[in-house]
Structures are given as C-alpha cells and as structure tokens.
C-alpha cells in the first residue's frame, strides 16, 4: 500500500509523523479510539495523534462516531479492506455496534440505517446510528 500516495490523494501533506500515524490506523481491522492508537504508536505524543486524526477526518480519510459510552471511535475506509465499511468516509452511513462489556465497536454494513422522515429542505450531513449491547465473545465468557 502506498501510504504517501493515499495521503496526497486526500489533500494531506505526507510528513514523516503523519505517515507513521496513518500506517498505525491502517493496521486496525475495526474502529479504534484515540487512546488505542496512541498506545499502539508509543513514540508519538497524544496531541500529535489527535491533530492527525482531526486532519484525516476533516479530509474524509476516516470518520468518527460516539460509541454509546462517551468514547469517540475512528474508522478508516479503504476499498482493499473487506473488514471495513467499503464506503468512503465522506459517505459513511451505516450502523455501529458497541459492546458495553469489552468496549469493542463494529461497523455493521449488512444493515441499512433506517429511513427517518425529515423536512424536505433538510440536507443530511451525517447519520450516527449506534447499537449498544453485549458481543458474542463477552456473552460466552
């Protein structure tokens, strides 16, 4: 994967630190939190990671959502990652599910977000549909 090319295509100047952070993001097969990414990267300070996530989200390279517990989760969408949504972050309109026991979040792309009747002149910019519960692993344990 050409990380530098992907950043450039999304209008992001590929500095050494941004490339390291982006490589860390791509390694996640599921939504992740700032804290998880920060701990994974180890050598980059938290504010730098946060600024990069903010920039990547502003440029629609990834999207974020509140996971139902007050935590913000991020998800990167690349067409070659079948584990991810298969959408672009700009058009990400699917369901997220979060386990209240382990905190793991998942993108549920097999179900469409329910249609909500809105005023005719209302332009939708974001849909955030969160389902919380207990995942199969936690139910077994």
Structure characterization notes:
The chain has 141 residues and is α+β, with helices and mostly antiparallel strands. The chain contains five helices and six strands, in the order ααβααβββββα. The strands form two sheets. The protein has a three-stranded antiparallel sheet. Strands 5-4-6 form a three-stranded mixed sheet, with no helix packed on it. α3 crosses α4 (46-58). The protein is globular, with a radius of gyration of 16 Å. The model is unreliable at 80-90 (pLDDT under 50).
Distance between the termini: 37 Å
Main β-sheet, in a few words? 3 strands, antiparallel
- Helix fraction, binned, reads 25-40%
Taking all residues together, what is the mean pLDDT? 86
The low-pLDDT segments are 80-90
The outline comes out as globular
Task: Specify the structural class.
Answer: alpha+beta
User: What is the CA-based Rg, rounded?
Assistant: 16 Å
Strand segment count: 6
Strand order of the largest sheet: 1-3-2
Proportion of beta-strand residues: 15-25%
The total count of helices amounts to 5
Q: What string, H for helix and E for strand, traces the elements in order?
A: HHEHHEEEEEH
